[in-house]
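[recover] target loaded
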């Protein structure tokens, strides 16, 4: 069973859409390195060339869970906007979320179980005494229909297949709508702060980490000591 992953800019501006495209490239490169198979199942282009509002991927591989540990959550890019030169903001967040897997439903007549029964209600002697009615059940979803429109069992069977397919497809559409709602919620839930990964610069340098005041102070003293040693 694969993992469905969404990389999204949420409601972020054009800069965040640019970050999504850049992160996708790094993400896929690392997936290849870790022997993770991937398939892009949906993408929403951004407002400018080479930008993406969101992309949804299907990942498969033995180590996919371990691979995702360092990716799921907020992603931070530190850099000046290439679209708005005078913009003061330098921290841009996007999100990477796991979506609940949606099993693709492919309607196959081989998965239908048929049962015959006597038709109910008025219709004459033949209708009531001969098993012309048909109940069709789709084994994968356990949905069923009961058809007794015709005095012919064969005709009722044909009708049951048509109606059952419509019912199964309706269920499939409802599942898709549910996933679309979840996708939209992910767009709204991009969290700021505590990024799982940080990148910086227009060259998208990997794993840039902000140094704390204590680390910067320690580094400054080490450099000072190094210069004194040279003297």
């Amino acid at each position: 069973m694969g993992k469905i992953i969404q990389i999204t800019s949420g409601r972020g501006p054009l800069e965040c859409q640019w970050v999504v495209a850049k992160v996708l490239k790094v993400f896929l490169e690392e997936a290849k390195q870790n022997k993770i198979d991937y398939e892009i199942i949906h993408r929403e282009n951004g407002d400018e060339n080479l930008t993406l509002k969101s992309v949804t991927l299907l990942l498969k591989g033995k180590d996919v869970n371990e691979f995702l540990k360092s990716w799921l959550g907020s992603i931070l890019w530190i850099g000046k906007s290439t679209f708005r030169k005078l913009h003061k903001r330098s921290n841009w967040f996007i999100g990477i979320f796991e979506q609940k897997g949606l099993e693709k439903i492919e309607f196959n007549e081989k998965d239908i179980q048929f049962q015959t029964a006597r038709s109910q209600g008025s219709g004459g002697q033949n209708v009531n005494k001969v098993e012309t009615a048909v109940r069709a059940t789709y084994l994968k979803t356990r949905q069923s229909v009961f058809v007794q429109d015709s005095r012919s069992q064969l005709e009722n069977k044909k009708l049951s297949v048509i109606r059952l397919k419509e019912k199964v497809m309706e269920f499939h559409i409802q599942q898709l709508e549910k996933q679309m709602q979840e996708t939209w919620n992910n767009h709204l839930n991009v969290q700021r702060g505590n990024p799982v990964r940080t990148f910086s610069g227009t060259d998208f340098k990997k794993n840039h980490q902000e140094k704390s005041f204590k680390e910067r102070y320690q580094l400054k003293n080490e450099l000072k000591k190094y210069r004194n040693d040279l003297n």
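[recover] notes: The chain has a mean pLDDT of 81.
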